[in-house]
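Quick one: structure tokens for this chain, please?
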Amino acid sequence: MLILLTPRFLAVKNRLTRLKKGDGLRTSILALLGVVFWAFMFIVSYRVLSYFRTVEGLGDLLALRLLSMVLLTFFSILVFSNVVTSLSTFYLSGELDILHSSPIRIESIYRAKFIETLIDSSWMTLIYGLPVFIAYGAVFKAGSSYFAGLLLTIVPFLIIPAAIGIIVTMLLVSAFPARRARDILVLLGLLLFVVLYILFRMLRPEQLVDPDAFPTLVQYLTAMRGPVSPLLPSSWASDALGPLLRKNAGDALFFLLMLWSTALAGIVIAEWVCGKIYYAGWSRSQEGKKARLSRSRAADLFFRLAVLPFRGTMRAIVLKDIKLFFRDTSQWSQLFLLLALTVVYIYSFKLLPLERSPLPTIYIQNLISFLNLGMVGFVTSAVAVRFVFPAVSLEGESFWIVRSSPLPLKDFLWAKFWSSVLPLLVLAEVLIVLSNILLKVSGLMMIIGVATVFLMTIGIAALGVGMGAAFPRFRYENVAQIPTGFGGIAYMIVTMLFIGAVITLEAWPVYRIFLAQSLGTSMGPAKWAWIALTFLLVIALIVLAVILPVKIGLKRLLDREI
């Protein structure tokens, strides 16, 4: 097993070595950005949890309830991420032909691929989750036992969804041996939608701000104290970390044992399933036909309409990218995940009982709408790291054709940008418009939200194309590996800092405008000048985010040997 993982380890080592030798300044800058991003996530989490703890009698319960919600959200994302990733690592990876033709035991292949799947599907969730968990320890003033318990909790918490995802993938591939991978992924998308909806309803987030829904205070406290579901690993993780936050390690031992025993059992069961059905399923999966969706008349009409705004070589590149996207079932089938997450995201706004808030309804509506800009940006960047960042790398080893053609690389990158930004704009605008409609925000906040998300999405797409060109990965086993490298992590950090900067710059002017509109007062020329200057800074930041990454990516590609 270790021998099979050696090429992956050496590839990471070589990339880090190249960074140390020739890119010390760049590495230092990116490391600094990473620290700033973690600090930002920590500060936001710390302030929210500190505010919860100020609620007398209910603060700790609200904070722990929020922890269970965070863990359940992570768990649901991890399960589907592992299903998609394991389909690539166990069935679509290019090295599998060599591995299965060599005298290597299936068990060794399974263990190596299990570790690859675990790393590829969990690294992003781990990056975003650690500052939150550390903030919990700081707010509760937990001791070293909490952080040791956190490590002992996170490891099995990541292993369990990996085992579930691998088992589900193997069963589906075995159940549909003669069908294309597209059919399996379509089914996975539908199953995900059902699972996410059920899990979201189990969370019952409206209870956090709706104590009047319970006849007595005792019932409200009981509901807040109760786990989301005693059968879910996310509930065990929450019940393991809760006592550690209160410096009562003895109560956490049982739930840690539950997590570890389930994780180890999941590894063993997945290995047993692998030994029974994996090789036969992999062999039959090679019979799959190519997707024909891109050859239908409806697809022809769609392609013509999609490239109408473009001319010349730009139209040819955009058309090629769109067709390749629909022919690659492992890419476009993930849109079902996107659809499910969008529905759940929008539905969450419908459940908010804003009328029960102690603050004026119009104030809380517009406040949530403004904070929602950051959430929409986060969702958009999470989609972009999967679809936009790998855009240049997807050319693969045939990139030499692009370099040797009379097509300028600058036009090539801008074509990648335009083919990526339009779908992102549709997604982001749908999220912000529908959520604002459900919140019943003022017309001013609707305009600000739509305009901000529009400009912010353009910056997110340009960052994805530019940094994807600066950190290309033309040799890869499967597409899921492209965003998992150094460049993908750097892209997510820079994007989050970019979104945070936009929201921070707009906070003061939006607040002043909304306050003046609500009170019916007018603002003097000096305030309008400051507001105009702030919005000009936002526009300048977005222009910088569009131009600078593409220029850097272009230079890196021009300096790169074919």
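Residues 525-559 form the longest helix (35 residues).
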